[in-house]
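User: Thanks for the earlier help. One more: Penicillin-binding protein. Can you show the sequence and predicted structure together?

Assistant: Of course, both are below.
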Amino acid sequence: MAANDKSILKRLYIVAGFLVLFAGAVLFKLVSIQIVDGEKYKALAETRTSHIFTIEPNRGNLYSDDGSLLATSVSKYTIRFDAVTVSNEDFKENVKPLADALAKQFGKTSSHYQQVLRKAKENKNRYALIVRDLDYSDYMAVKSFPLFNKGAYKGGLIIEQKTKREHPLGKIAERSVGYERVDKDGYRTRVGMEGAFGEYLRGVEGKRAKQKIAKGLWKPIGTDNIIEPKDGYDVYSTIDINIQDIAHHALLGQLEKYQADHGTVIVMEVKTGEVKAIANLGQTPEGKYYERLNYAIGESHEPGSTFKLMNLVAALEDRVVDTSTVIDTENGKWKIYRHWVKDSKHGGYGKISVAKAFEVSSNTAFAKMIHNGYKNDPEKYVNRLMGMGIHKELGLPVRGEGIPVLRYPGDKGWSGLSLAQMAYGYEVSMTPLQTLAFYNAIANDGEMVKPRLLKEVKEWNKSIKRFDKEVLNPAVCSPQTVKKVQQILKDVVEKEYGTGHGMYSPNFSMAGKTGTTQTNYVSKDKSKYEYISSFAGYFPADNPKYSCIVVIHKPDKSVGYYGADVSGPVFKSVAQKVYTTSPLTSEVDVENIQIADAEKAYQGYYKKAQQQYAQVPNVKGMSGMDAVAILENLGIEVEVRGNGKVKRQSISKGTDLKTVKKIVLELI
């Protein structure tokens, strides 16, 4: 027994020793965790239970040139309830008054809200949804309700804020206005003006602490932000909403008439390069049209006969011809190697001057002129075109500018046919805006200015940065050549035989060039041929104020496809209505122009805005400037009292717009 006792005792000592060692190891680890690795594990715990979240700032407003809103950010608020932080006594005392207040504000019954609140309390729900997507005035009202007025801890109030981008003009200029989006990896997608001017619009991010609660949800800690977000600057574009609306509806009507695939219209101010309108409409499978892509800036294609202007300028500058030089168009067909160049008029035009060849848009005359004039020195021809700068991108801030194509002798694709083909706008490629920039230069007496979409960046009434005219080429050609081609462009419309004479009006003058480009021409099946119809020019013909280009792709051939028929009427409609709404010269007899048509077009802007808001919107909490812009865009007369943000509006939200003529805003 003694031996057994000793054996048992020995074993006890061994076990005790192991326990002491184990306890020591545990103690050592605890000390190590607490002292040596304490900060590490504390930080790890905090990242798993709390986190700093980014608060997106309000983007700055994007305005038209007269201060009308094109895009604005509106804050939206979601209210949730943390039932755990609220004491039983406070909950019992305030649950019915809170439910009553919610019911009165949002239209549901008090019993509905009592049920939501009591269920949250019973289930210890720390993130119960009460109401979402509130505007600022409703949000401020909820903060003052019983129980919620006690704040985040005692009252269980959880506030989540987000911003929503709205376009008061609806779909008009939607693609040109554009957007800026950020994916989960931080990559930004930039489209249109929103994307191009994002550095000014986007502002500075704020920071907010949130705590992780049940079911992986995150609850804001406290009611204040760690870092307050800084709103973006306001950006004033060059877009004129009246001209934009005119261009949009003129293009839409013609696309629908010809069931075309897509089209674009650009209107630019001649002297400054300010883009006043840029409409891009594409067809859906259902036959409707919307702002699908920015064809004006991004789509490079063979320009066809509108490129004859560049060829005419080159030939005049190099003295290959003069405007009076006679060219034989033969019977309307001219064979070069195995290729036939054909005129649209069967039988041709006979022997005509270079000026008339341009005015009737003779392919044979221009092919002969360029091929015979430069066949011994094709480099001279291309160098002349390059000297005008038409081979370069415009360098726009808007992403996605199409790349112009101008081959050089020896390049891949250059052949013995190239001079003749380029003479009437094939084997070259330009975007509508690049083509317009050259026509604008001719209207501007030879000075090529950079098309511009941005006028100024502001912070409230303080100017941050102004953007002025930028000259790309002080003289695309000599003054003598400019005067000659200006007269010829005018004659395209005014002369009875000119391809643009169908657009002629005795009440206002226009100058320009038609273009009809054949696509899919490599196919032997003529039924598969498609066309691009164009008109580029400016108005008035003397002392031009605006330049404009219209390009319509793939019109229904059974209805028509020539530039004069398809695109010309859009140009004329834009010019006529711009003349009417803002007379350009004292010589214009406005009374003889159809004012009713112009008024109808101008009212179209209000109609589009009212489709966005059929009822009076809630502008409480907005800055006075933004509220006035939205309401005036809806055709409502606005009287402002005070300064700051809107505290009250005399006409309540939801009122039918048709019954409202004037609204009074009180600002604080």
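User: Great, one quick takeaway?

Assistant: Residues 346 and 629 are 56 Å apart (CA to CA).
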